[in-house]
Amino acid sequence: MNRLLSVFAFLLLLACSQPQNAHFNSLEFIPENAEIVLQSPELEKFLEFSAENKFLKQEPLITKLKGQLEFLKFYQLAGRSLLSLSGLDNDKPEIVLASESIDYRISLDSIKNKQLETITQNGISFQKATLENSSFYLYQEGKLAVFSNSAVSLISLISEKKHLANPDFDQVFETTDPKKTNVYIQNTTFPESFKSFLHKAGFPEVTPYWSWIAADIDLSPDKVSWNGLATPTRKSSIFGRDRGENITTEILPNQFNSYYNLDIAALQLTDSTSSELPVKNMALLKIAKEEAVIMSFLDKESASLFMAGSGEPINNYRNTDIFRLENPPIFPAELQELLHFQDKEFYSVLDQFVILTGEQANLETLIAAHKDERSFSKTGSFEVVFNNVASQSNQLFISRFQLEEQQKPAIAAVQFIAEENYAHFHAFMSSEEVSASQNSGAQLTQTISLENPISGQPVFFKNHTSDQMDIAVQDNQNNLYLLSNRGSVFWNKALKTAIESPIYGVDLFRNGFQQLAFSTGYKFYVLNRNGKNVEHFPIEFNDAITQPLAVFDYDNNRKYRFVLVQNENVYMVGSNGKAIKGFDFSKGSTNIAKPPRHIRLGTKDYILISEASGKLHILNRQGSVRVPWKEALGATNQEWYGYNGKFVNLTTNNELLEITQNGNISKRDLALAENARLVANENTLVYLTENELHINDQVIQLDYGLYTNPQIAEVNGKSLVSICDTQAEKIYVFNTNGELLDGFPVFGTSQAAIANADTDPALELLCIGEENELLIYEFQ
User: Fold this and answer.
1) Rounded Cα gap, residues 139 and 158, in angstroms
2) Strand pairing partners for 447?
3) Sheet strands side by side (includes 698-701)
4) Is the entire prediction scored with pTM above 0.90?
């Protein structure tokens, strides 16, 4: 746990009330070197609640404090108490605890292990006490008691009257209600005392602009918020009294670590160039270990004009130009210090925003998040933040971090709103509220780039060594890759021609080891997971293979039939690379129009072979006719599917064609458009007509676009329907009730492969992004 929590720890106290003793002058009992001061009627309850609060119970400073206050088990504080701490970075921070009154919990005479010594020095007398394992110094004057773990601090405060005399502290102290628990923090100690704490909690390292902070606290077991005032330092004079909306949150991606926003319009910068900045907001953003600067303008034209001449375009990503920053705009020195403009080499103009990053990949991540509408402003966590802080401010920090104890996400925010001689201060820390849709919605988890554009459809391929899914994909130079689902390249293999079939995962030897099977124009390949040819393969043909490879596994027992077509000829090959005997169908009367299909209806297997003439053969496993009929079918547009105990397809007139297992034929006019597409499985019928997607009885109105064929993926016993609008570059995924899954559509330019590709319960979607880019999304 980090030192930021050390500061927050002292903010996590109960608000409570107690009459104030007019003779107890609080300011006289605060040492001059105090860094944190706590004023409370019930200090002891703080220790009890800190042991229960999830943000405090693992905090090392709280542990130190408990050890230093062990003597409180012998005394009971009454009335108002002041606890002052200094030397917070030391192993043993100095404490001074002053209380209006104390009582004894037990008689000191009953304590066997004790030492009491009266010390007189500098005109005052006080006790040096050791009770059991607790050592401390105690000064008493009537009911008044002052404890300390340092005799020097006690003498300095009581005898020499060296109490805190700071006008900034006096200002915030006078604004607080003495009937409540209040905390006061010397903010100017941040650069030394809390630098590591700020860094570990994800906050950017920025100069403190506020001297003392005073706050009231609202505490619950999973959350703390506090509101108060801050006094300015000299540097805070750059903040004027105007402030604006935190506009840059509109482009803040959901998966960020920290965010620091400045309202530039309110800044009173000394540099003359400040009057030439048409910027509304600037923000420093951190994702993982990378930083980005975001600037918000009135509109895109203003943003483009401001960056004109700053660099040359080097790439286009998601229809957005990426520039190399060569002639950066001149920013005032104060902004350079605040927002770390150094080392920013790339930028893009995205709507009314300018984004500058040190790495091009980081810039692409931000562009993708904005294009996919995966911004923080659309999450439940955004609502949590702005229910606790104001929508307008001069400075706003937001940080996410992970609790060490239970690794549950937490979120924190700190905000300053400047007035003439002070600033309003709002802050909170909470377990991050993750809505169901935010938790289960599609999230981009991997972006994998190849050297060349991708050709064909990438597929998931079972990795029997890790029990996860790898990725098989070919580029336009005919290189076949096997990649991990994290993007590591296992191997690539140069083929002479493009793969023209799906890439199938098979287990030829029935031992759990997977191979890749596919066909090219003249060859049928089977490769092991190391990219080597399996024995008996490839099989090379003199004549072209005219339909993509089909793979049959009748009983799911891995006794494969590989079916290849050359014009009108059909060949069935076994796992040994030899022709399978006993399959009687070898040739059609005309060319075979589609890859042969294996369909199981109930307990029966059917092999469907369509000819270019429109003739359909429905065969049994031996290649003999299983379903005869006399009526001519005519040509069909699609592949055949099994649905609701029937064979279904679309005619060339876009009628729904159904054939029963007895050979009865029916046609239904569904008023389909000319380019309608159909796909089905046993329980789900899906067809697309213009912009209407029909899933069983549900009709979904899609935006007009250019759509791929719909697909049905069967994963974990359920069916999911996916479709890609290649014009808008969006992929949609629906359930069989026609409901769009949370987080969709997502960016993508191809059909999708869906599987549980790793070890967690979530599903993964694999698709093409940019022409040379693979994307993996995770969703529930």
Assistant:
1) 8
2) 775
3) 677-680, 685-689, 692-695, 698-701
4) no
